[in-house]
Amino acid sequence: MPVAAPQDREPQRRTTSRWASAVVLVAGLAIGGGHAAYADGDPTPSKSDVAAARDRADAKGRDVAAVQADLIRADLALETAGDRAAQAAEAWNGARWRAEQARADADEADEAAETAREDVESQRELYAATVVQSYEDATQVQGLAAVVEADGIESLVDRTVTMGNTSDALNHQYDAFLASSAVADVTASTAAQASERAAAAEAEAEAAYDAAAAAEAAAGAEAQSVSATKADLIAELAELEGISVRLAEKRQSALEREAAEAAAAAAQAEAQAQAEAEAEAEAQAQAAAQGQQEQAEQEQPTPTPSAPATPTPTVTSTPTVTPTPTAAPTPTPPPTPPPTPTPSSTPTPVDTPSATPTPTAAPTPTQSPTTTTTPSQSPTATPTPTPAPTPAPTPEPAPTEPPTPTPTPPPTPTPPPVATGAAAAISFATAQIGEPYKWGAAGPSAWDCSGLTSGAWASAGKALPHYSVAQYTQSTKITAAQLAPGDLVFWGSSSNPSSIYHVALYVGDGQIIHAPRTGRPVSRESMYYWRAPNFFARP
């Protein structure tokens, strides 16, 4: 009978389950002191049966680990396919952006070429009119006709000058025509080259579109395959663990979530350690720069005995006191000219009375006669007292005070520029949470990664290209330690910015808003949910 055949071949799983039950039962007997009763017909398991059941349980454990490893490999395959799709999508965004730039350049070159052509036509018309005018003027100044028809020599001269002016105008118009023709040729050539570049860029964009579509289709197929594989693996895992498939799915989701959170925490800790190391290195560099500056400023005051030079003006002031010997001229006791009436005989006695006033100028009594003979030398006598005041400034080297201003140079760290409009960008991105991902989309109801960040900052009044690499290059580069809400975080496959293929909007507290990939809508999550970003910028 076809119905009896399946009963003769009982599945191995059921046998294994029965032996596992037997193991549990034996354990119960051991605990209960062996007083439990068996139903009629149930064989008593032997020691070998128990050992075999335990071996099968161990084999099940290895099978569970193998299934979990297969689940991990399936997730990795899905992630790899998503990476390829994201890279292809951003490659198309870049090719499309370059094509748009090239087409704009070509349009501008075409406008310049058209303007140049119009200028050539205008110069041609002016030149033709000048030629006609020159011919008409030339016919009026032809040999004898000019003399006969002229009203006089002045009229002839006027006609000759007019013809000369016409000839000059003709030459000028011809030069202008040649120049405009040359410009037209150059602009036409430039426009043609720009048009060729635009066409090449558009062809590249079409190829990139096809590649992105293929990568997205491959990622979608891989996602479906991985989903089916994971469903089978979870069903197998549920059977091995003796639980329902639904419970196994919940357990697997929880395990994957815990693993992602652990990986994110580890990546965040690593990024924080790196940021701290960078901040410490920067602080050390600033301290070294400050030390060098202080040392340089300490070296500067030593050669600045310019401070002692300042007392020298005081010395100059003392000579102003020395001019008091001008009181020597005050020996104008020449009011003693009454003795002078005895002129020749008493010149010497005149010196003796002059000696009597000199006691007033006790510092230089000998000098007084010289001053009487040559008053011009009295100033020469003034420099002689200058050595006396010079020792006075030397005890005043209070320039020891200049070291006090040296602590003045505190270097101020240059903070990165503050991004304006960050709140508006974050508000816009938050409003898009839950909307689907679609590669190449920039709203209003679907987004890709760079389309979302471009739309968010456009709402804040700042234009960013729909291309992650260009968003990075057109923004201010910052470090992870300098991140502030509204900044952009990027993921690249290498340390070269040209390898960037994903971008997200940083909202603070280690959180981002982004459009992850096909199958995952716009969401807010940890910046390290996936892997640590390696580029940061501020629009």
Protein described:
Helices cover 62% and strands 5% of the residues. It has helices spanning 4-8, 12-32, 47-140, 143-149, 153-241, 245-299, 306-309, 311-321, 347-355, 367-373, 378-381, 422-431, 449-459, 468-473, and strands at residues 476-477, 488-492, 500-508, 511-514, 523-526, 535-538. A six-stranded antiparallel β-sheet has the order 1-6-2-3-4-5. The longest helix has 94 residues, at 47-140. It is elongated. Mean pLDDT is 74; it is low at 1-40 and 314-382.
List its traits.
539 residues; mainly alpha; 14 helices; 5% strand; disordered N terminus
* Broad shape: elongated
Radius of gyration in whole Å, from Cα? 51 Å
The first-to-last residue Cα distance is 78 Å
Helix/strand/pairing category: mainly alpha
Task: Tell me the number of strands.
Answer: 6
**Spatial strand arrangement across the major sheet:** 1-6-2-3-4-5
Order of helices and strands: HHHHHHHHHHHHHHEEEEEE
Pfam families: NLPC_P60
Keywords: Coiled coil, Hydrolase, Protease, Thiol protease
InterPro entries: NLP_P60_dom, Papain-like_cys_pep_sf, PG_Endopeptidase_C40
Family: Belongs to the peptidase C40 family.
